[in-house]
Amino acid sequence: MEGLFDPPETPGPATGAEGLIAPPPTAPLAVRMRPQTLDEIVGQQHLLGEGSPLRRLINGQGAASVLLYGPPGTGKTTMASLIARATGGRFEALSALSAGVKEVRAVIDVARRRLIGDGKGPGQQTVLFIDEVHRFSKTQQDALLDAVENRIVLLVAATTENPSFSVVAPLLSRSLVLQLRSLTDDDIREVLKRAVADPRGLDGRVQVTEAAYDHLVAVAGGDARRALTALEASADSTEIVDLADVETAIDRAAVRYDRDGDQHYDVTSAFIKSIRGSDVDAAVHYLARMIAAGEDPRFIARRLMIHASEDIGMADPTALQTAVAAAHVVNMVGMPEARLALTQATIHLATAPKSAGVVKAIGAALADVEAGKARAVPPHLRDSHYAGAKKLGNGVAYRYPHDHPDGVVAQQYPPDELVGVDYYEPTDHGLEREIGSRVARLRSIVRGAVTRRRSR
């Protein structure tokens, strides 16, 4: 389900915009509730401000091809139909899953004849909506270039992937790229309540409890179509939709998890402590609970990045790389696919050797700084890249490590009062077993001899 209201699987002849705006009563609830005007669009206010390019298009005041980029169920197809209605054009829908170069060229040929007209009046513009445009090959996308360039068609393309990586540069340069955002919980709730009351929807024939609304919002994951499909299934045979009806209809039990309450903090705490305790199965369980409850995946990714350093650190430096990579996947791919990267990172962190060395090192160093142990930098380490620096003793007697075959020389680096203080204490876990012996050798060379650790 890639759009708020997907086009038909096998579209027939060209359809006027009015036909799209007034679906039959037997159509799915999500289709019947398609916004008919700009004011009915929920969310995307960052794109619909006064004077914005998208608002001007939907109001019929512009004529630019558009690439709509965003998660499923955010209104991409709805906006395409509103643009078609505003321009008075004919609406053609193609899916990249089923259309090839032949079908694209056939639509363009019809659009060209339609634009010329029959000689008795002005021709008619064609609005070509292409869903899943990122699935088009380079050849298929190239077939659109001339028609877009010469405005034979007004292209409205939709994609759930970043078009910078999936759409050819010439098509990108000819189009206005607009990024849609996932709907918020409040947006989804508004969509649901409108569907319950609106004559096009359930027309007030059912009542929905707040617990049922909460669960519908949670399972939607920011996707309005998913929310409306779940509502329709839940209201199929009852006049009062409660939590049990929703759970039965969508075969998914409500997760007892309040993103703003105790459950949020308890589950998050258990997730973190399971990673720290190396219980990979418990960690994956709590991750699943957060995902199932609709927790913001960016929040989960942030926790993983933090704990890659806090609980693992130098015992396995690749843990932080994995956590950061998972955060990139969350931002670039989105849910539900990003749950795999989050799971991979969780498994990596939970099974990695553990060390609190990073936390202890910066904690001890900050404690000394806050206690006033931050006196003058040794003269030979001070900046000497200005006139008169040498006269002040700055940089004098500095030993350049790369001049030594081993790349390490005996030299004082900390302020006088901190000579011999050890902040980083490697454990015997994972890579730190090797790092520990190396750190000991480095300290011995740098300090000129094995220096007794000073009491802090």
From TrEMBL:
Where does the record place the region Disordered? 1-25
Family, according to the entry, reads as follows: Belongs to the AAA ATPase family. RarA/MGS1/WRNIP1 subfamily.
The answer to whether keyword Transport applies is no
Name of protein: Replication-associated recombination protein A
Q: Which InterPro entries match?
A: AAA+_ATPase, AAA_assoc_2, AAA_ATPase_RarA/MGS1/WRNIP1, ATPase_AAA_core, DNA_pol3_clamp-load_cplx_C, MgsA_C, P-loop_NTPase
Please give one Pfam family short name: AAA_assoc_2
Specify the signal sequence span.
Answer: none
List, in alphabetical order, the Gene Ontology terms for molecular function in this entry: ATP binding
The AAA+ ATPase domain, residue ranges:
62-183
The UniProt keyword set, sorted, is: ATP-binding, Nucleotide-binding
ATP-binding among keywords: yes
Q: Which Gene3D superfamilies match?
A: 1.10.8.60, 1.20.272.10, DNA polymerase III clamp loader subunits, C-terminal domain, P-loop containing nucleotide triphosphate hydrolases
Q: Which SUPFAM superfamilies match?
A: P-loop containing nucleoside triphosphate hydrolases (SSF52540), post-AAA+ oligomerization domain-like (SSF48019)
